[in-house]
């Protein structure tokens, strides 16, 4: 039986061709669809919204951080795809003794491309995966660079939560040419006063995990009257699977919008 290293450097032994796959990660669920292995995907989370048709046809095994282990057991998976950040350590460690669990850990584009190729190989769709990864890599090489601007990217409110260094979103911001005003690692919490002190030129309010809306943009604009405040598509910044094919076109429109405000 073939063995694969996951992104935690664990060796995972899989069947020659997994037939009962569970995805615990929305962006990896979409990747499996685009790799053409949908007939072998038996379980997804309630947050796996792409493709839309799977929400009605695939068994839901709970949320990314609230798994239903009895449902997973009933599906008898021979491959589970998990993520270090999106799933809890307790859940993953509970699954590992019973099933082959391949865990991703993605903080930049290169690790995302590595994941796509490995998942493709493990699921018998290597050719598609390589083509997809090459397409994504080429698209990012053509990404236009904006003038250096100081950006604050928020993912939660009450309290405000942002993205720092050593995150996939930070890597996406850097590839667009932006300077992240947050120098701490991972996901710091900020007060109103700390946001003002950061003096960002641009504030991006993500559509996920918190669904920011106009009322939140207005509140930030009150705090930062001289900043440009934008609602942005969080999937484009944080989904590290096949959705990356769409990211560069979105980033290019966003760059144009920021450098040429209406």
UniProtKB/TrEMBL annotation:
Domain of life: Bacteria
Pfam family, one: Peripla_BP_2
Keywords, sorted A to Z: Signal
Domain Fe/B12 periplasmic-binding: 20-262
Residues that span the membrane, as ranges: none
InterPro entries from the UniProt entry: ABC_Transporter_SBP, ABC_transptr_periplasmic_BD, Vit_B12_bind_prot
Protein name as annotated: ABC-type Fe3+-hydroxamate transport system, substrate-binding protein
């Amino acid at each position: 039986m073939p063995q694969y290293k996951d992104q935690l450097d664990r060796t995972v032994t899989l069947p020659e061709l997994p037939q009962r796959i569970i995805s615990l990660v929305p962006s990896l669920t979409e990747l499996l669809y685009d790799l053409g292995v949908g007939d072998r995907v038996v379980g997804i989370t309630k947050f796996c919204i792409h493709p839309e048709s799977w929400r009605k046809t695939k068994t839901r095994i709970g949320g990314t951080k609230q798994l239903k282990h009895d449902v997973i057991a009933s599906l008898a998976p021979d491959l589970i795809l998990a993520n270090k950040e999106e799933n809890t350590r307790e859940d993953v460690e509970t699954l590992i003794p019973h099933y082959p669990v391949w865990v991703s850990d993605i903080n930049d584009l290169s690790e995302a491309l590595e994941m796509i190729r490995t998942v493709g190989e493990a699921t018998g769709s290597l050719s598609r995966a390589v083509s997809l990864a090459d397409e994504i890599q080429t698209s990012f090489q053509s990404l236009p660079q904006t003038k250096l601007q100081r950006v604050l990217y928020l993912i939660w409110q009450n309290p405000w939560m942002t993205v720092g260094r050593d995150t996939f979103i930070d890597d996406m911001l850097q590839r667009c040419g932006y300077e992240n005003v947050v120098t701490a690692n991972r996901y710091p919490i900020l007060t109103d006063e700390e946001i003002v002190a950061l003096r960002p030129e641009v504030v991006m309010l993500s559509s996920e995990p918190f669904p920011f809306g106009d009322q939140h943009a207005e509140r930030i604009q009150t705090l930062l009257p001289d900043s440009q405040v934008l609602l942005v598509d969080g999937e484009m910044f944080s989904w590290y699977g096949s959705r990356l094919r769409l990211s560069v076109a979105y980033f290019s429109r966003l760059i144009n919008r920021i450098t040429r405000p209406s």
